[in-house]
Amino acid sequence: MEEGTSKSPSNCASTVDYGDADPFQWDTREDCQVRQILDRIADKWSLLVIALLENRRLRFTELRREIDGVSQRMLTVTLRSLERDGLVKRTVHPVVPPRVEYELTSLGRTLHTTIQSLVTWTEEHQAEIAHARTAYDTRAAEAAETTAS
Amino acid sequence: MEEGTSKSPSNCASTVDYGDADPFQWDTREDCQVRQILDRIADKWSLLVIALLENRRLRFTELRREIDGVSQRMLTVTLRSLERDGLVKRTVHPVVPPRVEYELTSLGRTLHTTIQSLVTWTEEHQAEIAHARTAYDTRAAEAAETTAS
DNA sequence: CTGTATCCATTAGGATACTG
DNA sequence: CAGTATCCTAATGGATACAG
């Protein structure tokens, strides 16, 4: 089984009281809890899973069908992580064939607003970003042209 | 140079009008713009860089010193991505030794609120998550114990 | 100082086969 | 159905050396 978060937990910044000045001085140390958790919830599939479960509880296969491109392995790994972090609850119904359902915990549900704002920002600004990329690539191509001459 | 985002841009969900019902039906397709952008800004270093630049413009070396554990290569790669996405502006002062400064663009600054809410959530709930992990690991260990007997 | 280029180790993650 | 186990490839990212 793959294990993450096995380094020093070093509960950085936990005792720091953020007033209203410099609200952005969160710890940049590598072993910071905040960093680890961000990495976890911002990974390739977690956001998607949380988003889908926000609406309703889903079975393993339903999740797999909804999320385009996820492998069985990665869906399992992702769900285990989320369960371990207390964001998702896993319920096994003792029937055959087995029926396993996933749903958000109350902790998981508190993430909704936050994730939503991130998704909304991305949706609202994707055109700008696409434009910036095109502009950048054009400039880069021209610079290469000049150099090559 | 490493290049990301080279697949089909497929401007998913851009024409969808989100009312107030089902605000979470964002596209789960792999080639979705939103997914790509989220992956980008949620990567290992981007959040950190944006966070630091929120306060003030910084030179390359200053960033490197502030961000514990980042290699020269990854800082460069990250900064280039952010520049390409129009989130960060790079200014080269033609002096020797060279002096290069990075600052957020207005687009980059609009990300601040969003990122802040994510960081705040993480800070507020890191204790809960740590607790959940411990509980999960304990249960897992006990289960392994039982199986082994 | 601010990079780029190269090499290499680690990890993420897909494909497949098998199990309760 | 809902996984686990194994194998293997691709991508991430660090270390180092070198250049403008």
Automatic annotation (TrEMBL), chains A, B:
It comes from the Bacteria. InterPro entries: HTH_HxlR, WH-like_DNA-bd_sf, WH_DNA-bd_sf. SUPFAM superfamilies: Winged helix' DNA-binding domain (SSF46785). Residues 32-130 form the HTH hxlR-type domain. Keywords: DNA-binding, Transcription, Transcription regulation. GO terms for molecular function: DNA binding. Coiled coil: none annotated. This is DNA-binding HxlR family transcriptional regulator. It comes from Streptomyces paradoxus.
